[in-house]
Design a protein that fits this description.
Layout lengths: L3 E5 L13 E3 L6 E2 L88 E5 L12 E4 L6 E2 L130 E6 L6 E2 H4 L8 E6 L4 E3 L8 E2 L8 E6 L2 E3 L7 E2 L11 E2 L3 E5 L6
Parallel strand pairs: 7-9, 8-11, 9-12, 10-13, 11-15, 12-16, 14-15
Antiparallel strand pairs: 1-2, 1-3, 4-5, 4-6
């Protein structure tokens, strides 16, 4: 254990004489640890003693000066100056922002009502704590009040990503408060995605939330395409991903189904007899009648149909007037096929007695009005 320096305090004022030092582990009677007394024979002398009598020549507070001395030359004696080492500190001085009680009224800076506010700074309320405040919220003070900052110009004090020091980002905001939202941060096609995050801001069907489809376009902006979305190997105008056989230009969604080749020609998933157009509907005419309208007889189908019409022996199909045919395919959907097995008679009224496709009444009541592909077996019948 090291020894401690002890000093004799003869006047019992709590301060010992510096020239009475004794090193010891424990103090002797009348000894203390403070040895800064400049007169240990008089308890009125010690550091911190009051010197308020400007006529008294004694240095009571042991600071090397007496109350009537003006060390800083500011016109105020030490006994009436709160800091006789600073020429700008005295009771006539102006309080300024410097952290010092300039006018010796025991009030410092903002706490002093006599503060020269021209020495204060402007502070701005910073609600979003991004280091920038709103310009019209300025308060004047020496030190920053809580919740304020020295920098202003914030155009949105509720958004910390918006201030004059921010970097513009893809969010639709004027991040750097320059008064301009970049064109890239607008939504040109109204699909809810900004131009800077949309790979085609002119098409609302193209954006990051879109579903990639087979159209040769990068729909969802992920930089990827469907398999076969960029190729058309058979050059039939249909992409590989939309063509059920991209090695055969005769097979695609626009092709007409061939009912006898065992191929899904039109890529609808149906082959030959599975197609409605390849399923033969039969119309048997067993008694003589007036005009036969195949579309009406078949219930006016909306899709192409294949029809087998059989006119039995001894049966006559005759037009009901000179303006109508005896047998008509008018109204059947394009792509339909009709096969006529005539074992009787097909007779037009007032026509030229031949098959005609010029429309009802073109030559009077013609025998057959042909509007779709018609095949006639007339080996044992008459027209």
């Amino acid at each position: 254990m090291d020894a401690t320096a002890w000093y004799l305090d003869s006047d019992a004022d709590g301060y010992g004489a510096p020239d009475s030092e004794v090193l010891a582990c424990e103090p002797q009677e009348g000894m203390i640890e403070d040895g800064t007394d400049c007169n240990d024979q008089d308890a009125d002398y010690h550091p911190g003693a009051v010197e308020d009598d400007c006529t008294d020549p004694n240095d009571y507070n042991c600071d090397g000066s007496v109350g009537r001395v003006d060390l800083d030359g500011d016109g105020f004696a030490a006994c009436e100056d709160c800091d006789d080492t600073a020429v700008n500190v005295n009771s006539d001085a102006q309080e300024v922002c410097d952290g010092i009680d300039n006018d010796c009224d025991f009030l410092v800076d903002d706490a002093d009502a006599s503060l020269d506010v021209s020495t204060a700074s402007s502070w701005y309320i910073d609600s979003d704590l991004d280091g920038y405040g709103v310009s019209d919220t300025a308060v004047t003070a020496c030190s920053a009040p809580v919740g304020t900052t020295s920098m202003d110009g914030d155009c949105d004090d509720a958004e910390p990503l918006v201030n004059p020091g921010a970097v513009e980002s893809c969010d639709g905001l004027d991040n750097d408060c320059d008064g301009v939202v970049p064109v890239a941060e607008l939504d040109g096609d109204g699909d809810g995605f900004l131009s800077c995050e949309d790979c085609d801001d002119t098409d609302p069907a193209i954006n990051p939330s879109a579903v990639e489809v087979c159209d040769g376009v990068e729909n969802n902006c992920d930089g990827l395409f469907l398999t076969g979305e960029l190729t058309d190997q058979d050059l039939d105008g249909y992409l590989s991903c939309d063509d059920c056989d991209d090695a055969d230009s005769a097979v695609n969604a626009a092709a007409v189904e061939d009912c006898s080749d065992g191929i899904d020609n039109d890529c609808d998933g149906l082959v030959d007899g599975q197609q409605p157009a390849c399923q033969v509907s039969t119309v048997d005419i067993t008694t003589s009648s007036g005009t036969v309208d195949l579309a009406s007889t078949l219930g006016n189908p909306s899709a192409p149909v294949a029809v087998l019409v059989t006119i039995f022996p001894g049966v006559t199909v005759q037009s009901s007037s000179t303006s109508t045919p005896a047998l008509t395919t008018a109204g059947l959907p394009t792509g339909s096929t009709v096969e006529v097995l005539n074992q009787g008679t097909i007779h037009g009224r007032g026509g030229n007695g031949a098959c005609d496709n010029q429309g009802a009444g073109g030559h009077g009541g013609d025998a057959i009005l042909v509007t779709v592909d018609v095949t006639i077996d007339n080996a044992s019948g008459f027209i």
